[in-house]
Amino acid sequence: MIHFHRVSKHYDNQTALRDVTFSIEKGEMVFVTGPSGSGKTTLLRLIYLAEKPDEGNISIAGWEIDKLKESSIPLLRRNIGFVFQDFRLLNNRSVFENVALALRIRGVDEKGLKTRALDSLKVVNLRHKADSYPFALSGGEQQRVAIARAIVAEPAVILADEPTGNVDPDTSAGIIRTFKDINARGATILVATHNRGLFCNTGRRVLRLDSGNLVGEETG
Amino acid sequence: MAVPYAFRLAAQSIFHEKWINFLSILTIASGLLITALIALFVYNVDATTRKLPEKFSMMFYLKDNLSRQELENILNTLGKDDAVEMVKYIPKGEALKELKTMLKDAAYMFEGLEENPLHNSIEAKLKREAVCPETAKRLASEMRAIEGIDEVEYGEKFLSSIYSIKVGTRAIGTVFIIIMSGGVIFVCYSTVKILFYRKKEEIETYKLLGAKKRFIRAPFIIEGAFIGFCGGLLSLIGILSLYYLVFLRLSLSIPFFKGIIFPTNISLLLPLTGLLLGMVGAAIAIGRIRY
Predict the structure, then answer these.
(1) What is the pLDDT of residues A110-136, one digit of tens each?
(2) Domain locations in chain A?
(3) Number of separate domains in chain B
(4) What is the distance between the alpha carbons of residues B223 and B212, in angstroms, rounded to a whole number?
(5) Which residue of A has its CA nearest to B12?
(6) Residues B209, A70: C-beta atoms closer than 8 Å
(7) Same domain (yes/no): B30, B94
(8) How confident is the model at residue B234 (pLDDT cuts 50, 70, 90)?
(9) Which of A171, A195, B18, B135 could form a disulfide with A167 if both were Cys (CB 3.0 to 4.6 A apart)?
(10) A208 phi, psi to nearest 5 deg
(11) Mean pLDDT throughout B240-260?
């Protein structure tokens, strides 16, 4: 589903990723870990095409990134659900509208959109907050809205960048449980985190990055 | 993208940013009102000068004692010219009779006249599209070269002046209209650009969620079109008010205003013009969206 082959990325003489090669198969849930500045976010940004690699090849859900036309980028991104570190929720739209946005972009009709958005909010236990606005929610709730938005269109791949960065341990555990449930339904999930507690004893594959190098792989 | 959703986003933005939009609408309305006034002026000058060919004619005064053959030659030459529509021979007797009719209150002027001082003449009317200083000048010079023509008269300076006014007004009017249209586009451009920058984060999120360019553009284009349309509508109200409340009233006391022609049908295009210019401004403001 996600294949990196000898991928490197540099920013002004600084190497963010160096010669990284790995594969994530369909239906896997994988963690990427490492200290701050190790290249986790860059790796995710390369997957959702916010950046282009300087060297190497990337393939996502059968799309060869280096052969991708600019007009196809939105189509690729529709196969990916994102949970951003800073949530990227729109404060002038209700929780429902934030989640529904991912469906509107995909051209889903109003009726299907309402059912699916509310179902998605139910998965993250925020159905009752549908009419609230993001600024009125706690950090953990905002994180769950972001997850609801990422899963609502049932994308093939879900990327999460520090999804528990702003929440307490109980909420963290809840978020990881949600990811496992979604993964159990067939979605491929890649979670970037520096929090070792998140993947310990999960039995999931963990990729370790350090200073832009993929330094090891283990089972959590 | 569902079209109603684009309209909903545009409506929300128009309401949310009501003051900047209101000021833009007023600016556009002023610009379009000035444009409409210039257009009205050009239209009236054009309409007035368009009536000129109906009244315009050239007079060819003939030498005395021309033979019938020579007269027919002159009439044929004139009649065959592409620019000439109608040729009329006026014998000097008829001309004198007409003059006496015209000056019947000053009949004493003709007392003591032993012989007719006038010349036989030919009046030529030019085709509507051929009435211009160049054609009249060419025809005058060609005819002067013909034996038997004594003098040619056609109000050369008057025709040149009218023609210059027509061409000049059109040119200056066009330049002004282009400049004002550019100004309207610039106002829409600036407004949408500001809104676009304010929503930069939101647009970035759209892009990351897989939005196509038209999904991002549509609300801004609608907003630009709305601003332009409202500006156009206000300018239409402005020019209609000016015509019906000011020009028509003034025409009761000042005859000049009576002659003003107001093309109502064309003025209804103002809101549409505003809408189009607004869309153009918005499209330029958004520019090329990159992923």
Answers:
(1) 888 999 999 999 988 899 999 999 999
(2) 83-154
(3) 2
(4) 18
(5) A92
(6) no
(7) no
(8) very high
(9) A171
(10) -105, 125
(11) 83
> Which amino acid is residue A143, in one-letter code?
Q
Q: Does B127 touch chain A (CB under 8 A)?
A: no
**What pLDDT digit, counting tens, does each position of B68-92 carry?**
888 998 999 999 999 999 999 999 8
What's the pLDDT tens digit per position in B7-40? 998 998 899 888 989 999 999 999 999 989 988 8
Residue A180's CB: how many other CB atoms inside 10 A?
A: 13
CA–CA dist A98, B44 (Å, integer) = 56
Residues B88 and B182 in one domain: no
A209 in Cβ contact with A33 (< 8 Å): yes
Q: Which of B206, B208, B212 has the CB atom closest to A48's CB atom?
A: B208
Tokens of B65: 């004692």
Give, in order, the Cα–Cα distances in Å from A139 to each of A143, A171, A175, B250.
Answer: 6, 10, 12, 69
Map residue A24 onto helix, strand or coil.
Answer: strand
HEC readout, chain B: CCHHHHHHHHHHHHHHCHHHHHHHHHHHHHHHHHHHHHHHHHHHHHHHHHCHHHHCEEEEEECCCCCHHHHHHHHHHHHHCCCEEEEEEECHHHHHHHHHHHCHHHHHHHCCCCCCCCCCEEEEEECHHHCCHHHHHHHHHHHHCCCCEEEEECCHHHHHHHHHHHHHHHHHHHHHHHHHHHHHHHHHHHHHHHHHHHCHHHHHHHHHCCCCHHHHHHHHHHHHHHHHHHHHHHHHHHHHHHHHHHHHHHHHHCHHHHHCCCCHHHHCCHHHHHHHHHHHHHHHHHCCCCC
Q: Does B290 touch chain A (CB under 8 A)?
A: yes
In a domain, B201, yes or no: yes
Q: Kindly state the tokens that stand for B143.
A: 């005819």
**How far is the alpha carbon of A156 from chain B, nearest alpha carbon, in Å?**
14
Mean pLDDT throughout B34-51? Answer: 85
CA dist B190 and B285 (Å) reads 7
B35-72 burial string, b = 16+ CB within 10 Å, else e? bbbbbbebbbbeeebeeebeebbbebbbeeebeeeeee
Does residue B291 fall inside a structural domain? no
Q: What is the largest CA-CA distance in chain A?
A: 51
Distance (Å) from the alpha carbon of B2 to chain A's nearest alpha carbon: 6
- Residue where a domain terminates, one of B153, B184, B216: B153
Range of the domain at B103: 57-153
Whether B211 sits inside 8 A of A74 (CB atoms) is: yes
The Cβ of residue B278 has, within 10 Å, a number of other Cβ atoms equal to 32
